[in-house]
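Field reference: sequence -> structure
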Amino acid sequence: MRIPASTDKILSMTPSLTKLHKFFQLEAERKFDNRAVLGGLENLLDSWEPEARADQVDESLLKVIGARLKDYNRLSPEGRAEALDGLWSRIQREAGLDGNIKKPNASKPKQETAKAAAPKKAAQSPPPSTKKKVISNKPADGPAAALDAAVTVLDGVGPKNAERLQKLGIESLRDLLYHFPRRHDDYTQLLPISKLKYGEEVTVIGSVQSKTVRPAGKGKAKIAELVVDDGTAAMRITWFNQPWIIKNLNEGDKIVLSGRIDQYLGRLTMNNPELEMLDAEQLHTNRIVPVYPLTEKIGQRWLRSIMSKVVQYWAPRVRDSLPEGIIKSAELFPLHHALLQAHFPDSFEDLEMAQHRLAFDELFLMQLAVLQQKNAWEGIEARSFAPSKEWVSTQLQRLPYTLTKAQARTLQDLQSDLASGRPMNRLLQGDVGSGKTVVAALAMATVANEGAQAAIMAPTSILAEQHYGNLLSLLSSEDGPLAENEISLIIGATPAAEKRKILSGLKNGEIKVVVGTHTLIEDPVLFSELELVVIDEQHRFGVQQRAALRAKGDNPHLLVMTATPIPRSLALTLYGDLDLSVIDELPPGRKDVGTHILFPRERERAYSLIRKQAENGKQAFIIYPLVAESEKSDAKAAVEEHKRLQDEIFPDLEILLMHGRLSADEKESTMARFRDGEAQVMVSTSVIEVGVDVPNATVMLIEGANRFGLSQLHQFRGRVGRNSEQSYCILLPENDDAAENERLKAMVETNDGFLLAERDLEQRGPGDFIGTQQSGFDHLHLANLADARLIDKARRHAKDLLSTDPELGLPEHKALGLTLKNYWNSGKGDLS
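Structure field:
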């Protein structure tokens, strides 16, 4: 296949045909691998055909081109070569060029065909100018850019650099456009050399007085040196082992230098600054300079130059899918202007506004996704359950305690949902020990009271057993709403004969409430009338697992529970499609866990507390940050410390060991032994189960406490204090300095898990709150999930838009609808 290289005659064709030639040429260079455009040449048609019609390309030719490109992916490389060869010949004839252009031989070395300039020139910025650019708020005229083109269409980006960029997640021009700087350095402060001070980050303009290159010691390394004068003073500038930097400079040349002022032998100097000629477009100096995330063999100057070409040319051609009304009402930058300013801002105010617009887009799209999901769920009918007030009152009187105000409020939420005629879709979050289970149990009793079934799925067998015991106690006592044989437990260890009996009882409806692990979603489990699904510690289950259990019924009500306090801003995003109930108070009589920071030298005080509690029949946890000792870390490790504690510190106590290298069965067995009182001390890493109830445990000692986040520390603390007796959490940092850690101080100041969660979100981001199965968050470039104000703003505008156009079918919302569809198809829409 021989596609002609760029010539004046080809470049004189219409812009759309010139563009087509560029991609054909690139495809030939790539040996017809169908990668000149991401997703294949067929993907070029959506953006290219409108351009071609605007250029008045004949419709018959458009049909031929469309047909050939749509079949292109089905062809072999040889067939693709023939198809493009024939197609290009026809294009030449209709353009009056046939016979006038010599086609290069595709069998020649690649560097010859690579001389084709057209695909490389397309993304270059306009000619350099010394004048400051004025960026219009109106997008550039002309067709939208083919942003799915591979980065190799750019000058200076060959296969090797493309491979390196791929490590940064960059494959296309669009990826480059959305590869935002990690920070911006301010080099706009021009100062005369005579006014410079040590340590300042500045920009200096001066004339070259002299230049030298000299050896740096005995090796081959060299030091390039300039003396620069600006009329107020002179200063020495040096670069280590970069002699090429000053190679083309001459005495008297005007240059711009940006960097940090250092000092050598009492004189101010500048080492390894950025340098540009004064008459060049200043990209690296005398401005607010972007600093990009890098990877091996990708330099900052090189990437910054590439980014400048892409941003200046393509950003003004990006189509803004956000409706004009929202842009105005939300007071946002137009998208093309935001992209320009996010990379190369004119001021820090413009940078802030640009980042605000782009972060809004990310959150707005997520809110549209979850709200559409919520609307779809609310449009479904479900069985209504509305028990009499007398029945509800009877169940509340049966309880061994009075519900807290938060529990009563949450129960009312659940009853309203169950009676609404649409499926409940609610998240119930409450701190450890807040009493979520009793509220869920009353909801399950409500469903079972009318002959339907309820299922609760827990992530581990030990948690499932714990729920089973609680439900038996709450619902099947002498005057309870259910008989004992109407509540069952099914886990992996359930004997085969008993499992068959349970499966039969679920299928014929005799069993009203079942507790289980992921065993519940397996094929043999069939229900007669499943109307309520409860998921405990829901972040431990993937979207598919939750959907599989829900599919066992006909639009059943759904309640998901978590003991991890989630900040409101994150809950609105992570679980935006769910209604939210929060139990934010502990039952009366429950005491706050006394939390104290000890210095490492005070460790014996913690051991004395454990001994005293053990003598009184109580138990203790000791948490370590590592499983085994490592040469790379000074942190204490569970395996070695378990042996030391057993042999030297507590030889008279039984100490169990728990860590992530144990099998699931071993971990559950160990936890069950500790729960049943077979040992006084549990040594563990962070794998200790959330939600496992050991009421007899009164001490939580956390070694290397400074290594854990607030949410983890709070979860550890929640393993004790599960009864009315005073419990203790002892934080032991690795060294005295770490005792000043802000997270540890926060733990001492409050037992409020929601307040700590807010602080943790601010300090560490959303990672601690999001299970590995959650999607949609890895692709956030600029949005901060701790920014409650922006999340509220995005959600408010998303709600307003969907209230007027729920399907985004209006002409002005078509582009946004397509963007949202791509968001779902990419898997980023499956949030909760």
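Note: The chain has five domains: 1-117, 122-181+293-316, 189-286, 389-406+434-562, 594-750.
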